[in-house]
Amino acid sequence: MTSGLLLVGAGGFAGAVLRFLVSGAIPKAGEIPAGTLAVNTIGSFALALITFSSVSDSLIYLLSIGVLGSFTTFSTFAYESFRLMEQGEAKYSLLNITLNLAMCMTGVMAAYLFTGH
Asked: Which of 54, 55, 73, 77 is closest to 65 using CA atoms?
C-alpha cells in the first residue's frame, strides 16, 4: 500500500506540473479554453490507452491515478461513459454524461452565487 501511495503521489505531482505547462502553453481559441480542452482530450486518450493495455498495478498507480488524475479528471469521466455505452448501457451512459455536466455546472453556479458575483 505504501508503494502505491508513493507512486500516486509522484504521478500526481508530475501530472499537475504537466497540466500547468500544457494548458498554459495553449491560448484560448476565441472563447474556448483550448488548453483545458487539450489536456482533457490528451488525458482521455492516454487513460484509455493505458486501461485497454495490460499494464502492471504499479503503472496504473503511477500513470492512471497519479499523472492523469491530476493532469485531468475528465479522462475518467469520458472513459466510464464510453464503457457504459460499450456494455450496452446507453441510458446510463447518457445519464452519467448529463449528471456530470449538470452537477458540475450547478456547483460552479452555486460557488459563483455564494461568492456574491
From this structure: 73
Annotated binding site: 69, 72
DSSP state of 101: H
Q: Tens digits of per-residue pLDDT, 31-57?
A: 888 888 899 899 999 989 998 888 899
Give the Cα separation of 12 and 71 in Å (integer). 8
How far is it, in rounded angstroms, from Cα 34 to Cα 41?
Answer: 10
Q: In the prediction, which pLDDT does 6 show?
A: 97
| pLDDT score for 89 | 92
Q: Which residues are annotated as a binding site for Na(+)?
A: 69, 72
